[in-house]
């Protein structure tokens, strides 16, 4: 085969399962090379957000929470699903406030990524929240519990390297933030 890969043509698609926070579907697609039809499975999910919350005294506001997939307590940045009719920026502020009790002086976009283009149809939007300060209590829904852990900026890289922060989308968000920062 020479040249770049070509798009596959969808022959049919059918929904398989509605799992509340995502839906699963199967698509039959035709290979542009062989003409053969193959099944592919896709996860349709709402847009997601991640927030890198920074305090004026050089700390990152992180959350510790139990994750059912890993069956572990994890250290992450705030984030979650964008609700219907909500902008990603509004979702980022809401998630920051709900999961940490913190608010921000300003919130700016740091880019968006596809969480896994082999399976997911959505994007995860990263925001940097500057001037974060505690303004209230954590307001988790009944399906999550978080606690705040402040991590000094000069310890963050070490915490990631040592595996204390190992959620791939969180590490990607931290890298997007690093890319957006002005070079010294």
- Nearest-angstrom radius of gyration? 19 Å
Percent helix range: 10-25%
Major sheet attributes: 5 strands, mixed
* SSE class: alpha+beta
Number of structural domains: 2
Q: N- to C-terminal separation?
A: 45 Å
Number of helices: 3
* pLDDT < 50 runs, ≥5 residues: none
Q: What's the overall geometry?
A: elongated
Which topology of the largest domain does CATH recognise? Nucleoside Triphosphate Pyrophosphohydrolase
Report strand %: 35-45%
CATH architecture of the largest domain: Alpha-Beta Complex
**What string gives the helices and strands in order?**
EEEEEEEHEEEEHH
Mean pLDDT: 94
CATH-defined superfamily of the largest domain: Nucleoside Triphosphate Pyrophosphohydrolase
Please identify the top-level CATH class of the largest domain. Alpha Beta
* Total strand segments: 11
Please tell me about this protein's structure:
The chain is built from 3 helices and 11 strands, in the order E-E-E-E-E-E-E-H-E-E-E-E-H-H. The protein has 184 residues and is an alpha+beta fold. It has 2 domains: 9-45; 48-180, Nucleoside Triphosphate Pyrophosphohydrolase (Alpha-Beta Complex), CATH 3.90.79. Strands 4, 7, 8, 9 and 10 form a 5-stranded mixed sheet that branches. The chain has a 3-stranded antiparallel sheet with strand order 1-2-3, with no helix packed on it. A hairpin with a 6-residue loop joins strand 2 and strand 3 (37-45). It is elongated, with a radius of gyration of 19 Å. The relative contact order is 0.18.
């Amino acid at each position: 085969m020479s040249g770049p890969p070509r798009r596959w043509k969808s022959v049919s698609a059918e929904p398989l399962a509605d799992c509340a926070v995502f839906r699963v579907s199967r698509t039959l697609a035709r290979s542009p090379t062989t003409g053969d039809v193959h099944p592919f499975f896709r996860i349709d999910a709402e847009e997601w957000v991640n927030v890198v919350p920074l305090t004026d005294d050089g700390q990152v506001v992180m959350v510790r929470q139990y994750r059912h997939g890993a069956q572990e307590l994890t250290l992450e940045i705030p984030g979650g699903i964008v609700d219907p009719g909500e902008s990603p920026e509004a979702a980022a502020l809401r998630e920051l406030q709900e999961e940490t009790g913190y608010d921000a002086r300003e919130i700016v976009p740091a880019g968006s990524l596809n969480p896994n283009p082999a399976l997911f149809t959505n994007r995860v939007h990263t925001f940097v929240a500057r001037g974060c300060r505690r303004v209230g209590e954590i307001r988790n829904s009944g399906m999550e519990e978080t606690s705040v852990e402040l991590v000094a900026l000069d310890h963050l890289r070490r915490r990631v390297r040592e595996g204390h922060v190992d959620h791939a989308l969180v590490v990607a968000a931290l890298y997007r933030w690093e890319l957006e920062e002005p070079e010294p």
